[in-house]
């Protein structure tokens, strides 16, 4: 018997802890992913965002594969949803001047996206447990700065 998906509740992230989002982006029963990008019956996963130094990203583009240090040390590549980008940049990289935001289409990555809170931050972030093909990048964006010097994004 197949499990029925429930539509997301307004104002809540439709992806739960440990749910996987893979090629196509659709969350199916038990966190399985199907084609088409739909999460349940009411939402869709959009782009994922990764903060990286421009030179590091350009070097990855030369070889067609992005495998940051976190893949070796933690086993995954960190990502943010759009609304998390500025907060992550301010928390982890406030003094860096060379950052860009790479926008990734998860449908172009063979490995699943796992949304989880691994650090007890009471906020779930998307992770991919594999190197990222650079052709999955659909955009490169600059971070802005507020009058107070904090990063801002989109």
Q: Give the CA-based shape.
A: globular
Strand line-up of the largest beta sheet = 1-10-11-8
Structural class per helix/strand content?
A: alpha+beta
- The fraction of residues in strands falls at 25-35%
What about the largest sheet? 4 strands, antiparallel
How many strands?
15
> Low-confidence runs (pLDDT<50, min 5 residues)?
1-43
Helix content: 10-25%
Order of helices and strands: EEEEEEHEHEHEEEEEEE
Taking all residues together, what is the mean pLDDT?
Answer: 79
Break the fold down into its secondary structure elements and pairings.
Blueprint: E1 20-21, E2 26-27, E3 33-34, E4 38-39, E5 43-44, E6 48-53, H1 54-63, E7 65-66, H2 69-73, E8 77-78, H3 85-93, E9 99-104, E10 113-116, E11 125-128, E12 132-133, E13 137-141, E14 144-145, E15 151-152
Antiparallel strand pairs: 1-10, 2-3, 4-5, 6-9, 7-12, 8-11, 9-13, 10-11, 14-15
Any overview of this molecule?
- The protein is of the alpha+beta class.
- The protein contains 3 helices and 15 strands.
- The strands form 6 sheets. The protein has a 4-stranded antiparallel β-sheet. A 3-stranded antiparallel β-sheet has the order 6-9-13.
- A hairpin with an 8-residue loop joins strand 10 and strand 11.
- The longest helix is centred in the middle third of the chain and has 10 residues.
- The N terminus is likely disordered.
């Amino acid at each position: 018997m197949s499990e029925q998906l429930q539509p997301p509740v307004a104002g809540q992230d439709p992806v739960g802890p440990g749910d996987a989002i893979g090629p196509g982006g659709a969350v199916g029963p038990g966190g399985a992913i199907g084609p088409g990008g739909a999460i349940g019956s009411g939402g869709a996963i959009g782009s994922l965002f990764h903060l990286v130094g421009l030179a590091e990203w350009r070097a990855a583009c030369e070889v067609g594969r992005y495998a940051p240090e976190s893949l070796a040390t933690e086993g995954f590549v960190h990502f943010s949803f759009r609304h998390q980008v500025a907060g992550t940049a301010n928390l982890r990289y406030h003094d860096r001047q060379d950052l860009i935001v790479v926008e990734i289409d998860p449908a172009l990555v063979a490995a699943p996206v796992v949304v989880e809170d691994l650090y007890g931050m009471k906020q779930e972030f998307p992770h991919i447990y594999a190197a990222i093909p650079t052709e999955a990048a659909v955009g490169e964006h600059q971070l802005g700065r507020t009058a107070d010097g904090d990063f801002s994004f989109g």
